[in-house]
Amino acid sequence: MTIKSDRWIRHMAQEHGMIEPFEPGQVRDTPEGQRVISYGTSSYGYDVRCGKDFKIFTDINSAVVDPKNFDAASFVDVHGDVCIIPPNSFALAYTLEYFRIPRNVLTICLGKSTYARCGIIVNVTPLEPEWEGRVTLEFSNTTPLPAKIHANEGVAQMLFFESDEPCEVSYADRGGKYMGQDGVTLPRS
User: Fold this and answer.
1) Taking the domain 2-167, which CATH number applies?
2) Which residues form the active site?
């Protein structure tokens, strides 16, 4: 497997709709000149943005977190330009970008250093071959302080690895349960 470059990412996004909406370069400022946490195409990856809808874990309903029987009451919904994650807590968001992963590509997501240096960890499972949708992002605030996530700004980087041969069975072939997700998607059993 080889990591794919900015040229490949641009080609796949512009010619095959792999990423929509798509920024062909790095965006660091708004049109008004305000600094943002960068997003868009980088040398060997694509920095994604998160949307304005967040789900923050809460214990006000005394729910137990069970991935096989998930209770939506475990979350408080927040909509806005920022999300404040309580100390040592967790939130979900989604990418503004919609992805269509090619059959011979596996995509890995890593957090951006700007957030990592603040104790905010981004976790995303791999985007498997032929998966498509908006990515659900998992943010962990590992600090004893509240942490701020900025919507419409860079939060994580996607790395694309192309195999020398296509897989026998893709995510689409097996009817993966998160295919086509749009917005924050909770665990499905």
Assistant:
1) 2.70.40.10
2) 138 (proton donor/acceptor)
pLDDT digits (tens, 9 = 90+) for 109-132: 999 999 999 999 999 999 999 999
Ramachandran region, residue 97 (left: φ > 0; alpha: ψ -120 to 50; beta: rest): beta
Report whether pLDDT(9) > 90: yes
With H, G, I as helix, E, B as strand and everything else as coil, classify residue 113.
Answer: helix
> Which residues are tagged catalytic?
138
Say how many C-beta atoms besides its own lie within 10 A of residue 176's C-beta. Answer: 17
- Averaged pLDDT for residues 100-111: 97
The domain locations on the chain are: 2-167
Contact 90, 108 (CB under 8 A): no
